[in-house]
Amino acid sequence: MSTIEKAPAKGKTDKKPAVTNISGSVAVLEAFLAEGVDTIFGYPGGAIMPIYDALYDYQEKLHHILVRHEQGGIHAAQGYARSSGDVGVVFATSGPGATNLVTGLADAMIDSTPLVCITGQVFAHLLGTDAFQETDVINITTPVTKWNYQVTDATEIPSVLAKAFYIARSGRPGPVLIDITKNAQLQKFDYEGYTKCDHVRSYRPAPIVRKEYIAEAAKLINEAKKPFVIFGQGVILGKAEQEFIKFIEKAGIPTAWTIMGLSAIPSDHPLNVGMLGMHGNYGPNVLTNECDVLIAIGMRFDDRVTGRLDKYAKQAKVIHLDIDPAEVDKNVKATVPVWGDCKETLPLLTAQIEQKVYPQWLQKFKDMMKEEEDTCITPELNPTTDQLTMGEVIKTLNELTGGDAIIVTDVGQHQMVACRYAKFTQSKSNITSGGLGTMGFGLPAAIGAKVGAPKRTTVAIIGDGGFQMTLQELGTIMQSQIDVKILILNNQFLGMVRQWQQLFHDKRYSFVDIESPNFVQLAKAYNIDGNSISKREDLKKAVTDMLNSKGAYLLEVMVGKENNVFPMVPQGCSVAEIRLK
Amino acid sequence: MKQEFTVTVYTENQIGLLNRIAIMFSRRKINIESLNTSPSEIEGIHRFTIVINELEDVVKKLVRQIEKQVEVLKAYYNTNDEIVWQELALYKVPTSVIAEKVKVERLLREYGARAVVIRTDYVVFETTGQRDEINKLISVLEPYGLIEFVRSARVAIIKASKGFHDKLKEFEKKEPGEDVIENEYLGKGGEVFTM
């Protein structure tokens, strides 16, 4: 136990020095209160029963939401973390409860979402005996957690949980899993209060900022003729939206986003030139290979953003700002690496750059947007076809919410269309499974997003396929009365896979033809009001009804069966080879 | 071109850490040729010595990912030129043959081997050296009826290292000095991850 250190006394949050005798379970809940946790998403079971028993007395202080499946619980916690900017907390029991968390952990790991998951475990003396509901959750979750730890002795609980919250939320955030054996939950021990952790000797949350590289980066930016800013979720995770906007406004540089960075700046910002990547906008993709200085901020050059790497921005000098040193040079070689928290590095950089504008360069983005509008956007947003398009549904939603809603998406065509066309006025408003591409993420994540930002309208945009992966969470919505607006865009296909089969597999539609139940009736079974439409003239009223409904609502919109998402960078192609049709 | 690299990792001594480090190699389908993990000169700090054959670019990225792990204090990678390394080997040979053939004694002296156990039925010799030296002694002993052979993992000292004591003191501070921060090699090119 050499690694669980006591943090310095100044971080103390509990003023009562009195020693009390409490159980490990109570210590878990006391830790939550000290860390400012207000909501837990969970599902009880044998090995976590002592914690649930303790929770019975903490119901007033800790709001527990009973989910219908642990995967739903962890996705909800992710949604909560993403809309609130705080740590999401999950309870699950041992064995199947714990293994059901794995998809969510992997999703949170790759999308840097701060979570603390508590799993129950069999009694310590039963470890390794194939006891009932025993599984080696620590080893199963090691590759998909930022940190994990098994507690077998209750006295460790306060310091381990302090470390868990510190690691989850500091630096590049990520999921932490703490596995607590049943004996440790039951064990009584002398509790000396809770001390927050603010230092772990083997862990550096953020590298020290090197001033000389800030100066080098500023020099490159000041000398650039065609600079281009691309950013990701780092701006949101660093709570550096204002710093970022000040930077781009002084630099006057056209700015594009990854889907994880979406909503960090308002959609109508004059320097916003759109979305990067496979289904991103035409200009940002093509001009990535034309800019002379590429400034990447809080993003990790995912292959869905870069396309073919050996043809990606080869002409450009690259400045990469990231908090995670392992991201620099991982995919794209940086000319100047600026390591550190962008909340700290951006103001330093802003101070050293000249106030500039690039009207001709910015015009180039606008010209290409015009071209994209003619070929892709107008047919999608103002279609002349009989069938509705996903794009016009999003457009209608924009008109009615004014861009103030939180948009949670699942994975697939609807996700790309939503990211392309949804408008945002404030940060932390686009919640999607970016890195892992987890179908089934949308509905439970929307539950958590609503709980994390209760005053905001939350719309879950989900495909007919993804909805059927986690629709059991309608039960959670019903029981906990979560005001989530569910917008199913039903094309009666697993659309994205079908699009690929059409384009790259000679239209051999292999198992993408998916049937669905009557979603409206299904919602009604859960006491959730709903409607299904397929005609353009019904769209505006239907979306209005959904937004105005009291409480949860399900709206199914039948859209064109074989509509495709364009533009598209085909796999193995460079971003400059993006296809408009 | 792939070449042999020795990865040295200083870690906290915690259950499960071996797995956390090992899967970073297997995830990238990199075979671990040799792995030693043992307490370092500092109490509570473990030292891993891992030998792999890889491209330098791959190793560099891998080492950064290893260093990112919460319980890893520091990770380095070195080519064979940059380290002093040894393996230890044990050879079990029938005593009858050894006793009869005087040549064996001369051989063992030549290879710096020493007897660890001498019994009426067998003798166990020990030698330390590099891979090819140890291999050579195997081939030499084989005609004399080598019964069993085992070798240890590589242990290696980094030539340029000034030790870990001072670094650890820095890690224990909240605001460590520049020489232990992660981006110590920035702009230094070739000196990447050497102490």
Automatic annotation (TrEMBL), chain A:
Keywords: Amino-acid biosynthesis, Branched-chain amino acid biosynthesis, FAD, Flavoprotein, Magnesium, Metal-binding, Thiamine pyrophosphate, Transferase
Enzyme Commission designation: 2.2.1.6
Highest taxon above the source species: Bacteria
Domain Thiamine pyrophosphate enzyme TPP-binding: 410-557
Annotated Gene3D superfamilies: 3.40.50.970, TPP-binding domain
PROSITE patterns: TPP_ENZYMES
Keyword Kinase attributed: no
Sequence ranges assigned to domain Thiamine pyrophosphate enzyme N-terminal TPP-binding in this UniProt record: 26-138
Biological pathway: Amino-acid biosynthesis; L-valine biosynthesis; L-valine from pyruvate: step 1/4; Amino-acid biosynthesis; L-isoleucine biosynthesis; L-isoleucine from 2-oxobutanoate: step 1/4
InterPro entries in the record: Acetolactate_synth_lsu, AHAS_TPP, DHS-like_NAD/FAD-binding_dom, THDP-binding, Thiamin_PyroP_enz_cen_dom, Thiamin_PyroP_enz_TPP-bd_dom, TPP-bd_CS, TPP_enz
Domain Thiamine pyrophosphate enzyme central stretches: 214-347
A GO term for molecular function: flavin adenine dinucleotide binding
One GO BP: L-valine biosynthetic process
SUPFAM superfamilies: DHS-like NAD/FAD-binding domain (SSF52467), Thiamin diphosphate-binding fold (THDP-binding) (SSF52518)
UniProt catalytic activity: 2 pyruvate + H(+) = (2S)-2-acetolactate + CO2
Record's keyword annotation contains Mitochondrion: no
Protein name listed in UniProt: Acetolactate synthase
Species of provenance: Niastella vici
